[in-house]
Amino acid sequence: MSYAASVSAVDVDVMARFFGLRLVSRGAPWTFPGVHAVFADQSFARQMLVIENVPGKTPERLIEDGNMVILNLPTTAGHFTSVALINVGRPRVEAWFEQTSVVRQLWRQLAPLPTAQAQIWGCERCRLPTLDSLADVVPVFAQDHMRHLMECLGPMLQGVWDSTGGMVTAAANGVRQLVTDPGGFWGEKREQMSRLGDFLAHFDTKIREMAAGISRLPDRVKVALMCSFAGSLGTDALLSILTGGAGLAAVMLRLDRYLVKIVRLEQVIGALSSLNRLPTGNAPFLQALAAGRVGDDVIDAMRGFQQHGMTDLMTGAMACPL
Amino acid sequence: MPALIMLFFFAGTAEARLCRGLERAMEFLNTNRFLQRSREVGRELMLPLADISQARSFAFRFPAFRELGFGSPNANTWRRYQGRLAASDLHGHNVGWEISNGQGHARVRLDWDEHKGGHYNIEIRRLHNGRNETHRLAVQFQCNNHPCSRQDINRLAQSMQ
């Protein structure tokens, strides 16, 4: 078996599964944040970003940079696949190498590790949680709504990415940087994913802090609340989630205002949810609410109808601002 | 193309009508505002809603009934009301409920006429500052997004027997 063939057999989907990560977005060829594929866990805390078949000489094959491990795996002659694993941990990466027989040969090609370091990793690997027990170790792992959030936010971000020609150019330029400075390239992507993670965590935290009635809502409703908010954002605002800056601050402010309205509608949303009348996914009414197109008079009307048990009028009022 | 424009126009006006109705329904949830508006207008008030579910919901849960001392329409304290107009198809049919007590008289009944189409009539008579006053509200509704026909209302009345 040739060395190159062994490496090309590495399936990034299988690799992601090993780390307990699932596909968030795969571009054709690019997706946000200027990579080919994004994988993440339920809480979006651990991520795997992939750029496949980069033309050029394979850079250093394993780079550890803080909470990120970069693997540059040769594929065909003159090409390599670069994988950035964020918050996965080098011991876990090492475990993957050891478990994956076809790449074990590659692992041996890497610079031998200092004995003491290897021993430390060995001990850490002993304590590594299995995927089944992750829910016990990290409580948020058991909550799947972050993943569901990404199921709607991912395509939106990808659509924005596809629609921005300049960003595609930046992505192509970035690949050149990947050959010469993989650490710098992936460092920037890590920052963008970190901002996205912060954005999701901010929403999650706010929801938890909100009125008990809201925080107790089923995950599908929380996802609808968030997806509708994201759907109300324009291209620039959505991009600012990745790129940060003043745009992101404006998005956060808008999110806070939206959540204030959600709290005012707590009883209404709770009633609609219990009746299974609340639209799931990207709901037009919630989008209008997020965009500030639902006046206080409509919110008051919905609350009034809800308090008097007039469900049909409550749902009718949802159609008015649209 | 003109047909499409007309469709959008009517869809738009239907929605505007619905939203105006809901706005007014919201206003009439406040009993004082309803009474004040009724006195100002001095005749029957109109409340256009989208369909019979909305209209029934509003008519039978109309807060003024409860807040003026009649309670909400129910089979224990309210009695059946039968159509009385001899010329009407609804004559002799159970079409609503009414109550008379120390507070006055209240009634809610299903009705149809050419001007208002299908609607629930709400009527409240009470003594206020030594004077008898009557407040009327017609809660109009449509049948399948079109004005209800007399036959539509007759069918609805049959289901109330």
Give keywords:
heterodimer; A: 322 residues; alpha+beta; 17 helices; 14% strand; disordered N terminus; B: 161 residues; 38% helix; globular
What does this entry look like structurally?
The complex is a heterodimer of chains A (322) and B (161). Chain A has 322 residues and is of the alpha+beta class. Chain A is 61% helix and 14% strand. Chain A contains 17 helices and six strands. A six-stranded antiparallel sheet of chain A has the order 1-2-3-6-5-4, sandwiched between helices. In chain A, a hairpin with a 2-residue loop joins strand 4 (62-65) and strand 5. Residues 1-9 and 111-142 of chain A have low confidence and may be disordered. Chain B has helices at 2-28, 31-41, 52-60, 63-67, 150-158, and strands at 45-51, 79-82, 94-101, 104-113, 117-128, 131-143, 146-147. The radius of gyration of chain B is 17 Å and the shape is globular.
The N- to C-terminal Cα distance of chain A equals 62 Å
Global morphology of chain B: globular
Mean pLDDT of chain B, to the nearest integer, reads 88
General shape of chain A: elongated
Structural class of chain A: alpha+beta
> In which order are the strands of the major sheet of chain A placed?
1-2-3-6-5-4
Question: How many distinct beta strands of chain A?
Answer: 6
User: What's the helix count of chain B?
Assistant: 5
Termini separation of chain B: 46 Å
Oligomer: heterodimer
Share of β-strand residues of chain B: 25-35%
Element pattern of chain B in H and E: HHEHHEEEEEEH
List the helices and strands and how they pair.
The complex is a heterodimer of chains A (322) and B (161).
Chain A: H1 3-8, H2 12-18, E1 22-31, E2 35-40, E3 47-55, E4 62-65, E5 68-74, E6 79-86, H3 90-99, H4 101-109, H5 115-127, H6 134-137, H7 145-163, H8 165-180, H9 182-209, H10 212-215, H11 219-232, H12 235-243, H13 246-264, H14 266-274, H15 284-290, H16 296-307, H17 311-319
Antiparallel strand pairs in A: 1-2, 2-3, 3-6, 4-5, 5-6
Helix pairs in contact in A: 3-4, 3-5, 7-11, 7-12, 8-9, 9-13, 11-15, 12-13, 16-17
Chain B: H1 2-28, H2 31-41, E1 45-51, H3 52-60, H4 63-67, E2 79-82, E3 94-101, E4 104-113, E5 117-128, E6 131-143, E7 146-147, H5 150-158
